[in-house]
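Researcher: Please translate sequence to structure tokens.
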Amino acid sequence: MNRRLNALRSPTQLTPYPRGFDNGGPVVIQDQYFEGMVEGAGGGMDDFVPATIEGIEPILLSRDEYVIPADVVSHIGDGSSERGGELLDEMIANIRMMKTNTDIQPEELNETPEDIMLDLKL
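Model: Translation complete:
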């Protein structure tokens, strides 16, 4: 498995972080704190993987999304989670712009990979 679970600490062993959910918090999947690449059912835009923020607020993730721990976001922002989030948003927009000439996430494909391959053979 590529996912990195911190098996040394369960959600009940840590003190909750003193911040609102809009500023992040540890993500819990199957009763374990989680960070890294999300594995699970569905495609990259399906939101089929159930999780919670701080073991309280339910969220849905997609396979192949990446969870960045709050402390790392704060480090990126030189101690500010807000600035770290802004820098990550800028990075994502720059990557999309370089690869797709737009900073907006592309829509999900309506065709299956098999349909696309068939169209390429024509």
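Researcher: Any highlights?
Model: The longest strand covers residues 32-37.
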